[in-house]
Amino acid sequence: MVFEGFPFNIGWELTLACNLRCNHCASAAGLPRNDELTTKEALKICDQFPALLVQEVNFTGGEPLLREDWAEIVLYLKDLGISSNILTNGLALESKMVSQIKSVDISNVGISLDGLEKTHDYIRGRKGSFKHVLRSIEILQQENIRVIVITTVNNLNIGELPAILHLLQSIGIRDWRVQPLIPTGRANNFRELYMDDLGMLELGRFIHYWAPKSEKEGTRIILSDGLEYIDGISNSERPWRGCPAGWITCGITSDGKVKGCLSLPDELIEGDLRKNDLWSIWFHPDSFAYTRRFSYRELGSNCSSCNKAMECLGGCSSNSYTASGKFHNDPYCFYKINKMNSV
FRET pair for 249, CA 20 to 30 Å: which of 59, 285, 324, 342? Predict the structure, then answer.
């Protein structure tokens, strides 16, 4: 069967360089990759997007704002009719940088907040980073730039979620993206961050209770990385139908490799943009086999007996693979855990 989908949304790791060494970083970011893409190479990749119907590019890292040509790439995409978003830890968001973001018409800025002050500063490894994030959010709001706050939920901040929500509402945040910790990268050195079944149960129940109420009060809780399938809650415009990697999205690393998702380990590379164009990689019959060739037989032991398995297709590929070593086998499934604890 010939695959006919397109990568409408692309995650692009502009650089692996970072000004923090966060405990939970799935990419273990810090130093740039060897031989990262040049500006010329990056713009050449951009030229390939319109034919593939790319609508949106999410720039991440590392810290994408450390790359000096980020604005040039954003403006080039704008001329191609493609919108851009920036995901940042917030440390580089001084007034001059925010003015530049406004001038290139970034669609939104995703900024990370991973707990209340003590917890956030510990996870981010820098005292004062919590206050810096709040100041950065204030500057962005003053420039009328849309802000999405992103929280990676883990064992240390799970109990702080109601207080974080209250804080975000008090400063006028309208969009809060909640995503579970992916157990890979630098997080492997900080096992105290890992959530067990009770933590996942607490997260799911928080979402069940607060998501509808919070949206009515003006702050939308956006679910990602498999949380979209928390039963009956997802407010996504696109209902969860399994991992979208290789169906409607893919990731590009800072040295030009293509992955289904940037949260997947680097061993799961589909191709190299220095050797082949994105069209050839995307439509290659062997690409993204873990999603495109899915069948019931691919389900792991965590999912094979579930009555929802053919709807969720085994959950988030990154969570499943990094936590269990297998796709379609997500051990952090709220539906399953809730069902077991309701018996």
Answer: 324
